[in-house]
Amino acid sequence: KQWYQRRVAITAGKGLPSDEFSTENGIIVTRGLRWPLMIDPQCQAINWIKNMEKGKLKTIDLQQSDFLRTLENAIQFGTPVLLQNVQESLDPSLAPILDKAVIKQGGRLLIKLGDKEVDYNPEFKFYITTRLSNPHYTPEIATKTTIVNFAVKEVGLEAQ
Predict the structure, then answer these.
(1) Which of 10, 28, 106, 118 has the maximal Cβ count within 10 Å?
(2) Among candidates 72, 68, 63, 42, which has minimal Cα distance to 22?
(3) What is the end-to-end Cα distance of the chain in Å, rounded?
(4) Are strands 108-113 and 102-105 parallel, antiparallel or unpaired?
């Protein structure tokens, strides 16, 4: 109970409403085993992530020509990354990251991105958002991510 109340205070303090739905979403995003894919038509999750990771967050989208280079650097240095505005499919080059396909080689943690092996810093965090309000993801994407729906509910609006 006390842990939950602390979590409510933390998530609400970073910009999420303090209702139960929003708090549970915040817990799922921060404590889940898979990378979160957040359905975020009102940009509530994006704003919360930006507040939570203030000063460290790298924001990318799949239309950027250098998004993979940004991801490589973030993985090496343990920097959080927000991949925003995804549609209903994800770039295949993200598969090793989504799979958390990290290997240990001689005391080093590595992940293979394309044809490169990149040092993997366990501090790395990966957040994915879509502005689509009712996306249909393939079972493959659904099993590789934790889909979290941040579409604002009436209770959340009252808590704001």
Answers:
(1) 118
(2) 42
(3) 23
(4) antiparallel
Chain segment 67-83, per-residue pLDDT in tens: 999 999 999 999 999 99
Q: How many CB atoms lie within 10 A of CB 32?
A: 12
pTM above 0.85, yes or no: yes
Look up residue 5 and give its two tokens. Answer: 């109340």
Average pLDDT over residues 42-67: 92
Runs of H (alpha helix) within the chain:
2-13, 20-31, 44-52, 67-77, 95-98, 139-144, 154-159
Tokens 């991105």 belong to residue:
113
Average pLDDT for the chain: 87
Q: Which two tokens stand for residue 38?
A: 């957040």
Q: Are 99 and 144 in contact (CB under 8 A)?
A: yes
Q: Mean pLDDT throughout 138-150?
A: 95
Nearest Cα neighbor of 38 from 56, 25, 52 is 25
Q: Which residue has the tokens 């993801």?
A: 137
Give the model's confidence band at 64: pLDDT under 50 very low, under 70 low, under 90 confident, else very high. very high
What's the pLDDT at 136? 95
Determine contact, residues 31/143, Cβ cutoff 8 Å: no
146 DSSP β-pair partners: 36
Residues 84 and 127: beta-carbon distance below 8 Å: no
